[in-house]
Queue: 2 jobs
Job 1
Amino acid sequence: MRRAVERLESSVLVPLIGFGVVTILLAALLLHVICSARFKLRHNSFFHICAIGYVFNIISLLALDIGKSFAALGWMPAVVTQTTATTRILHFALFFARCGELHTTVFTALNRMMAILLPNRYDQAN
């Protein structure tokens, strides 16, 4: 029974790691495009919020999806998973990233709401 659970766990976690890696690569690519000098709208507040959100998403994916999956699969040394310092750093990164994701979602919604409800003021500000 235990072996079946481990097999099921690894069959779920390995694709999760792959999905996390692909998502990190896409977020890094979008971040690079937004921050590049050739991107004409990079000074727009919406794209600033998006860039900050991508950074938070990358931190969150590294800490949660990849970090915890590696530990659950036993791909990390026991020293790393059994120390309280590593656990505290991981939990801080998760808390920081999740709060940042929430804030960027709220700011994105406010930004879009201002662009729709007050288009003249929004164009002057950007």
Job 2
Amino acid sequence: MACIAVVFVSVLLLGMIVRAQDVISNDEASRIMRETPLNVPELIEKVKRGVVVVHPISITDPIAAQAGIMLGSGFVIDKQGHIITNDHVAGSASMAQIIFWDGSSARATLVAAAPYYDVALLKLDDPEPDKLFPVTLGDSNRVQPGELALAMGSPGANEGFNIDRSDPFEYWGLRQTATMRVVTGRDTDLAFAVGWNYRNRYGGGGQMGLSYALHYPYVLRMQVPINGGNSGGPLFNSHGEVIGINTYGGAWMLDQQSNIAVPINLAKNFVVEVLEHKRQDIPWLGVHCIFPPNILDPESYVEFRERMRPEGLWVYKVEPDSPAAQAGLADGDQITSVNGEEPPTPESFRTRVLLSEIGEEYVFSVTRGNKEFTVHLYTVPKPAYVLNFSV
């Protein structure tokens, strides 16, 4: 478990993200960076000024705020002062205090939050472009298990009851650290990861898994240690590109080898929806292709995957009035191809839909008993009243 203390005295490569379009593209910069991996000291030196501490101010629990247990991390994405963090860090706040690498601070306002992705977008009230050092956003679709990843943040930020509030660095939790290990998986459903482990470790219930099932349908798993206060901070690849948002540490949920990050592509889609289209739409078809996590134990789910996957995607349930229902899909149908290709796993199918555009067409080849037919359906914004695990 490598842990590298970061000294707050070095220079960062200038950030390249200026507009929302640049958040998504930046292809040439990413290509150049991918050609030459950085060593660890170079990597830390390059990115650390873009990492910040996020201290929510107006939150629903003022006692928690005063205690300091709502502190987290974040990262600057453009010269206009936009900052990405977790929804569970700042999504319930209207404002936040942002603490930079050198101890200086500034006020930020919540622009939008997406609990479904656990992503929140903040904007500095009075950004000073010359003092901002945006990170470069990578492509989480390119991430493969076994790749090295570097998590940065301020895990000391959550030790609100044991800090010296007369020391501004300790008060604000500016114990910025970097930890580096490998990515162990992708397209993972956090509800299963959390819900299973909760039942295995503590016996019965599984309410933790059921609760988080509503929010985290697509995550990266990694051995990189994540601790309290790391939430919302960036997960970098070896080229200095952000590939994920550090979200949960296995020390208290799973195990220290199974930590969780939200893939950066979900956050990029969210940022574009908010900044360019002024909306927060989640693409949706209205299909359940896996059992809800609260009714399957791990052994049953493994058996389900082994039994069903060779035959395609099994439609466990169709949501009423959804695109899937309107196209004629029904409970128990089997999807044997998606857009002319072999069907993906249930997890990667969920990922594919979440990363779709609104209005994107899907063509399913379907088997129902002895009948075979084709249906066409189009993604729509997921209705606010649909709080289940359908995609």
